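Case study 2.
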Amino acid sequence: MNPNGSVTLDQPPNNKLFDPSQLTRVSPVVQRQKAEQAAATASSLLLSLSLNGQPIFNITLGNDFANILRPPPAPALVLAPFAPAPPPPAALQLHVAPQYPSLIPPTQEPGIDMPLSDFCAQYGLSTSVLNKLTTNGFIRTCSLRFIQTVDLGTIGFLLGEVAEMKDAVEQWAVPSLQ
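Prediction:
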């Protein structure tokens, strides 16, 4: 019992029921108090024996501790929205994207005028190329300056035929005087 007369679990009342020296009929409160004191003494003894009096430090490491030696992830690349380019004509998708729109290079001018049959024979173009040009109304080489590379795909030229035609026109055309 405390000097002020109050009773606590640690300070039970001072009478025969709570007297620890009595071996007969020990109250449950005294039994509990003795058990707690014995447990506290045993744990402090065990702690002093296991740690040799060394202080205990508890360090909490976060979930990312395992990644401390790894390089940080690259920042996400955020692209600004843009308007998509209109798709090229279906015929061009199957063939070739021109470097310049005209069949004649911008640094050259049309060569001498001749029938397309002579042009195809002179520059080694196939009869298939000649037939596609004449079927679409082209008769002479002077009209080649008005053909766009895209037009070749539109009239049914295959990829190889477009390349052969561009090569022949580059050989036939003359350097520009400008």
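The radius of gyration is 50 Å.
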